[in-house]
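Reviewer 2 asked us to include a model.

Predict the structure of this chain.
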Amino acid sequence: TCPLQYKYKYIDKLPEKKRPELIFGKLIHQILFLVLNHNQALPQNTEALKEAEKLLRETWPKEDLDGNSKNFRLKAGLIIEKFFKNFNPADQEILSAEEKFEVPLEGHLLSGIIDRIDKLPNGILEVIDYKTGRFSSQEGVHQNQQLTFYYHAAKDRFPDFKEIRLSLHFLENDIKVSSQRGKADVFALKSTIDDVSGKISQKQFFLPKNRKGQFY
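Predicted model (C-alpha cells):
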C-alpha cells in the first residue's frame, strides 16, 4: 500500500493507534466465526441471530471509537441482522473458518487467514472474504491481489477441487461479488512478490504513496 508505511510499522516498529474501522471489522469477523461454528445445523437462523446479538452486546469494545461508537454499534446490528436473515446452512458446507495457512510460492512462504471456505452443492469450492467497508466495483474484485493469494492457498489446501470461486462479501450492503483465477494470475502475483520482497530485503524504495497508489 505504502512502502514508507511498511517501514514505520515492520522495520521501525513505531507505536500505532488502533483505527476504529479495524477494531470494528475484527469484532464482526469474530462474531460471524463464533456463531457459524456452532450453528451450521440450525434449520432456522433465528437462534443464530439471537446468539450473534448477544455476542455483540458482550464483546462491544470499551474504546470510544473516535466518538462514533453509536454509529458503529448501529451498523454492526444491521450487518448481523442482514447476514443471518439471508444465510441458509443448507446452501453450503463450511469446510474452514478463520483458518491460518502457510503456502509456498517458488522461493517464498506466504501466510494469512481466510475468513471462510465452503463446499457448494454443485461441487465448487468457494473462498469467501468478508468486507465491512462499502462495495467498490466488480472490476476491483477481478483485480484484487488478495483473492489471487487466496486462490493459490486454497488450491494447495484443497487440491481435489477442479473449480474455485473467489468471493468478496460486502457485509454492509449484503452484496457478494465473485471472481475466478488461474495459473497466469498466480504467475503475475509471483512477479509482484519478487519485486516487493527484493526491495524490502535491500531496504530500498521506502517512499510514501498517496491513497491512489502514486508516489509523492
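The first strand starts at residue 93 and ends at 105. Residues 20-39 form the longest helix (20 residues). We have added this to the supplementary material.
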